[in-house]
Design goal:
The chain contains 13 helices and 6 strands. The protein has about 300 residues and is an alpha/beta fold. It has a single domain, classed as Phenylalanine Hydroxylase. Strands 4-3-6-5 form a 4-stranded mixed β-sheet. Strands 1-2 form a two-stranded parallel sheet. Helix 8 packs across helix 13. It is globular, with a radius of gyration of 19 Å.
């Protein structure tokens, strides 16, 4: 019986399993391990979604695709991506072995590093994957990182996370349950903001709506749905709505928010930090996402400078 080369397929890669068992969060990209099927999966994903980008993506995203010289025929080498990305905004894609706790992820953004998954989904699961893969991260996220103002938004968001970690560590330690409830609420607010902007954001572009959120830009089925479907509610963004709106990851989004520009988005991150200081993020509405113990610990035990 012929052996199957599983390469760097999501949930099936021995290289990733070994890294996780060793406690390695940040890794290198062993490009030679990508199988022929992995490469074919990238080709199919790219070929299917490129026409939809041309119709629905924000123009800055399309500029980013061109600037990164993404190859439609093969899985990107992160070294090549960074060769084009770093001169533009000083960002870099940084390979990870899987889940990165919330504070560490956000702090990477502050340092202009983007934690990047290196595995790729199975060829028979092109349409939906609950966890990120290299197509979502590189084709969905990184083209936007070539835009200076958008990159500044990510860094600013990372600074808000740093403020949240410092504040978490200064809360009353005599009532740990109350402290943890506040920190979990802060994390929930930041996660919702990130979801409804960086992952699933819409933006005005002239008289049209365009997509800049990576969750939409990497989804063949949902990118068009987000702009055209009457089943989607689309509203100008309001921070009080976003931080109190739960989300679920296993179906099309029924509610999306519109920003005017990346300057507008940057100002919203400033407002998010102001609300953090004022305690307005301390009692957000319950529901998803729920901060897991690793996320909570990442903020409470973060090594941050005053």
């Amino acid at each position: 019986m012929a052996t199957v080369d599983i390469g760097l397929t999501t949930t099936k890669a021995p290289f990733i399993e070994n890294a996780q068992q060793n406690g390695d969060m940040f890794i290198h990209q062993p490009y030679e391990l990508y199988s022929d099927e992995n490469q074919e999966t990238w080709r199919r994903l790219y070929a299917r979604i490129r026409p939809l980008w041309e119709s629905y993506a924000n123009s800055k995203f399309m500029d980013g695709v061109d600037n990164l010289m993404l190859d439609p025929q093969s899985v990107p080498r992160l070294a090549d991506v960074n060769k084009y990305l770093q001169p533009l905004t000083a960002f870099e894609a940084k390979a990870v072995a899987g889940y990165v706790p919330a504070y560490i992820f956000f702090d990477c953004l502050r340092q202009r590093q983007f934690p990047t998954t290196i595995t790729i989904r199975e060829g028979n699961k092109l349409d939906y994957l609950p966890e990120p893969d290299i197509f979502h991260d590189i084709a969905g996220h990184v083209p936007m990182h070539t835009d200076k103002r958008f990159a500044d938004v990510l860094v600013r968001f990372g600074e808000v996370a740093k403020t949240a970690a410092l504040r978490a560590q200064q809360l009353n330690q005599s009532d740990l349950a109350a402290r943890d409830k506040i920190v979990e609420s802060n994390i929930r607010a930041m996660a919702r903001f990130f979801w409804y902007t960086i992952e699933f954001g819409l933006m005005k572009q002239g008289s049209e709506l365009k997509v800049y959120g990576s969750g939409l830009l990497s989804s063949l089925a949902e990118i068009q749905h987000s702009i055209e479907s009457p089943q989607v509610q689309r509203y100008p963004i309001r921070l009080e709505w976003v931080i109190n709106q739960y989300f679920e990851i296993d179906h099309f989004q029924e509610l999306l928010f519109i920003v005017d520009s990346f300057d507008h988005l940057f100002d919203l991150v400033d407002q998010l930090e102001s609300w953090l200081h004022e305690g307005k993020l301390d009692n957000t509405a319950g529901g998803e996402p729920r901060a897991n113990p690793e996320d909570l610990s990442s903020f409470l035990n973060a090594k941050v400078d005053d």
